Amino acid sequence: MKYSYALLILSFVLFLQSNQAQERVLPVDTTVVTQHNVTVNGVAFGYTVKTGTQPVWDDMGKPIAALHYTYYTRNNIRDRAARPLLISFNGGPGSGSVWMHLAYTGPRILKIDDEGYPVQPYGVQQNPYSILDIADVVYVNPANTGYSRTIPTSGEEVDRSKFFGINADIKYLAEWLNTFVSRNDRWRSPKYLIGESYGGTRVSGLALELQNQQWMYLNGVILVSPADYKVIRNDGPIAAALNLPYFTAAAWYQKALPTELQQKDLLEILPESEAYTVNTLIPALTKGGFIGETEKNAVAKKMAYYSGLNEKEILQHNLAVPTAYFWKALLRDQGGYTIGRLDSRYLGIDRQLAGERPDYSAELTSWLHSFTPAINYYLQEELKFKTDIKYNMFGPVHPWDNKDDNTRDNLRQAMAQNPYLHVMFQSGYYDGATTYFNAKYTMWQIDPSGRLQDRFSFKGYRSGHMMYLRREDLQNANNDIRDFIKRTMAKGQSAKY
After folding, report:
1. Domain that holds residue 294
2. pLDDT band at 311; cut points 50, 70, 90
3. Are residues 221 and 249 in the same domain?
């Protein structure tokens, strides 16, 4: 009987453990701290990493989400209040913070080759160009991205309207940042937002939301390969025309341009293509079906010259060539490869040469080779954040509410109200998703008065959407951020016009 009773107790314990093991729950509020060292620009120093979760609360003070973050601070800083804080977001919407975290500004980056292609064994290495030498950095995963998760309350389903839309996203993240800044004693620090792709939309809106609702004023906003949906969702002539300079850049890289252009440097020919786009192509496309045949043929000829496509296929698209068609068609007769969407240096192989768009994104499949194992290894083994929760490279956030997108003007208002606030754009010339010339156009349109233009800057790089994957641009782009931060520190100057 004693044996049977002991066996019964053991079985009950194992039953409870098995039930607990089946529940994959992310702690709502937790922190893990580790110590590390890095050498940046030849200077070695120690740093602290705090990674964990911080709640999002509803109006009643109940947690409705747990956001995972990773926060880097340089050690032995005498005056932490004077040290800049960079708050980093990626895009999607639905993308985790992994991309800029493990490839751009942080102290650890992927093990990849100098052009950004994956190598095995996967893992991370020191980032000799990280901006951690001059600024502390926090990488934030919005709801359902990375390890972050929404939390149902009282057995009810999650209210998706509180998270998954342009304005909802901005509102709850601003509240979350208020708590983060308070918990970490950073209210006195100069603050910067950086956002990549859709993250550019996010941080443009956050600049005003933080300022007007949280009374948190920024020194700078950095837009990395920003997605401006005022243009992207507009199928009009301007949206179509703005693609041409990108076509020129990608065709130049793939050696698909006429000899006269191909023998010149990229930065020699892009101003030509840009000028033609603004002065000739946009006016021509605005005429639509009423453009004269002579003018239409002349435009098609010049577009072929600047794009590497032929006149016939340009005319077949009524001069408005979709980017997807360009990725498929550019090298159709030159090796039969497709080119990448986010980075047109990458090549793909489709099932057939015919078609209107590539079968897959050649660059993204390449990147996922190295990013996915690296972030899982890094957070769990180096930073000791142990969880059975899946790291969502791309999380379930759709449908996404795109209504009432006023983020471009919100950024202008924030700048107008805050004389300290400066904005820098960073774009890769070979990015076919959020093109560099689209970014320039966005920068030109933010402030129609032109009175704020001395607080805008643009930096271009010879790579794609994630320009920092290319070693040379990793160094250049980090140095541009470093210079931007140094240049925009208030240094005792009053915030006034």
Report:
1. 235-363
2. very high
3. no
Per-residue buried b or exposed e for 173-196, using 16+ beta carbons within 10 Å of the residue's own CB? bbebbbebbeebebeebbbbbbbb
Per the structure, the count of domains in the chain is 2
Say if 21 falls within a structural domain. no
User: Taking Cα atoms as reference points, which of 62, 65, 82 lies closest to residue 74?
Assistant: 82
Whether the model pTM is above 0.85: yes
Measure the CA–CA gap between 265 and 231, rounded to whole angstroms. Answer: 29
Residue 22 lies in a domain: no
Instruction: Please indicate, yes or no, whether residues 226 and 239 belong to a single structural domain of this protein.
Output: no
Is 222 found in the same domain as 239? no
The pLDDT tens digits for 203-261 are 999 999 999 999 999 999 999 999 988 887 776 899 999 999 999 999 999 999 999 99
103 and 197 fall within a common domain: yes
pLDDT tens digits, one per residue of 89-140: 999 999 999 999 999 999 999 999 999 888 888 899 999 999 999 999 999 9
| Domain end (from 346, 363, 380) | 363
Query: Mind listing the pLDDT tens digit for each residue in 338-347?
Result: 999 999 999 9
Same domain for 260 and 225: no
Give me the CATH number covering residue 197.
Answer: 3.40.50.1820
Domain boundary among 363, 383, 405: 363
> Is it the case that residue 18 has pLDDT exceeding 50?
no
Residue 493: inside a domain: no
Predicted local distance difference test score (pLDDT) of residue 19:
46
- Residue of higher predicted confidence among 349 and 19: 349
In a domain? residue 139: yes
**Cα of 174 vs its chain's centroid, Å:** 18
Same domain membership, residue 405 and residue 340 = no
Contact between residue 189 and residue 83 where contact means Cβ atoms under 8 Å apart:
yes
384 contact partners, CB below 8 Å, separation of at least 6: 32, 34
CA distance 268 to 428: 16
Q: Are 137 and 202 members of one domain?
A: yes
Same domain, 293 and 344: yes
